[in-house]
From TrEMBL:
Binds 1 Mg(2+) ion per subunit. HAMAP family: Non_canon_purine_NTPase (MF_01405). Its EC number is 3.6.1.66. Substrate binds at S8, K9, N10, E11, G12, K13, S71, F153, G154, Y155, D156, K176, H181, R182. It catalyses: ITP + H2O = IMP + diphosphate + H(+); dITP + H2O = dIMP + diphosphate + H(+); XTP + H2O = XMP + diphosphate + H(+). Pyrophosphatase that catalyzes the hydrolysis of nucleoside triphosphates to their monophosphate derivatives, with a high preference for the non-canonical purine nucleotides XTP (xanthosine triphosphate), dITP (deoxyinosine triphosphate) and ITP. Seems to function as a house-cleaning enzyme that removes non-canonical purine nucleotides from the nucleotide pool, thus preventing their incorporation into DNA/RNA and avoiding chromosomal lesions. Keywords: Hydrolase, Magnesium, Metal-binding, Nucleotide metabolism, Nucleotide-binding. This is dITP/XTP pyrophosphatase. It comes from Aeribacillus alveayuensis. Homodimer.
Amino acid sequence: MKELIIASKNEGKVREFKEMLEPKGFKVLSLLDLNEAPDVEETGKTFEENAILKAETISNMLKKPVIADDSGLSIDALNGEPGVYSARYAGNEKNDEKNIEKVLEKLKGVPHEQRTARFQCVLALAIPGQKTITVEGVCEGIITKQPIGQNGFGYDPIFYVQEKGKTMAQLEKKEKNQISHRANALKKLEKIINHWGEFNHESADH
């Protein structure tokens, strides 16, 4: 059985990967299963750079295939902020409420039609001795003027999904997992893994 490490300590994220990959015959482990889980500093300037950095660092240490993700919110009226700083936008300690407050404060007076934004997720798959593969998933939305809904986490209460007529925080988990940025990236990764079946291809260029 092929072993695959998910470079995350987020139980929700890890569960999503397990649901996708275990039926395909993979043994899925995460940083929660490792005694000495490395902490990789995210020094990249893009989601892709951070995902590759995490995946390759841990893959090189463990000599095993690793999937890492980096994701966040990009708001057009704020020139793409908070972007790679999404988790710590309002300060070094991760605080969802303070992050939301900062976004709403910065968007004060910005009309509805100019509050366009997207959640982005980049997944990187690093395999020892092979070229790292990346896929990106996106979910488009509009930033509301106040938080709405109790579900989800992060910026979900202020991210309005037009096709659903609700914020991310009003969606049921199953509904969110059909349209979210991570779900879209996972679908692309699933196609790659289905296509190759085994990690024994010559290169990652196709």
